[in-house]
């Protein structure tokens, strides 16, 4: 009986919390300061030096890119509104674009010359994972970058609105250190 009561209480508690799903993060200001994103780690530093960049992804697969401030706004709205409890919500995000397009738009935002961009083969990431913990950890989630990852946030917009940071503004925030 105690286990059943515990299960019921847990289920009621979970039902009062929202779940928020995001696209790939853009770093913004003080949020995620020590984390790297799709551009600031593998692409922009190399392009700044006039070198080619290699990204462990399908460069042309569309992705939703989410600004952390947009995630924060949705979390607050969903947590404070009973309609948000016990459901999963996709964070409003700018239109999905490929990593290739994101890199070239980022380059334009910071006024940098475009460099060469190539896709890192999966085997190369696996090999790197033998000696590098971050490469090993990224390999587990790499499937998200090898195929489309696009959010459909229409249901979120109906309940909580469709506020999101435009992609070029997110890029300006994310890549400020490269200006």
In short:
This protein has 179 residues and is α/β, with parallel strands linked by helices. It contains nine helices and eight strands.
Please render the helix and strand layout as text:
Blueprint (H helix, E strand, L loop, with lengths): L1 H14 L3 E3 L2 E2 L18 H5 L4 E3 L6 E2 L1 E2 L1 H12 L8 E3 L6 E2 H12 L6 E3 L2 H8 L3 H9 L1 H4 L7 H7 L6 H8 L5
Fold and architecture overview:
This protein is of the alpha/beta class. Helix content is 44%, strand content 11%. The chain has nine helices and eight strands. A two-stranded parallel sheet has the order 1-6. A two-stranded parallel sheet has the order 2-5. The chain has a two-stranded parallel sheet with strand order 3-8. The protein is globular.
Question: What is the oligomeric state here?
Answer: single chain
**Gyration radius, in Å:** 19 Å
Report low-confidence residues grouped into runs of 5 or more.
28-35
Q: Please give the order of strands in the largest beta sheet.
A: 1-6
Number of helical stretches of at least 4 residues: 9
The share of residues in helices is 40-55%
Mean pLDDT, to the nearest integer, reads: 82
Distance between the termini: 63 Å
3D shape: globular
How many strand units? 8
Largest sheet: 2 strands, parallel
Strand and helix order? HEEHEEEHEEHEHHHHH
Beta fraction of the residues? 5-15%
Class by SSE composition: alpha/beta
Descriptive terms for the model:
179 residues, alpha/beta, two-stranded parallel sheet, 11% strand, globular
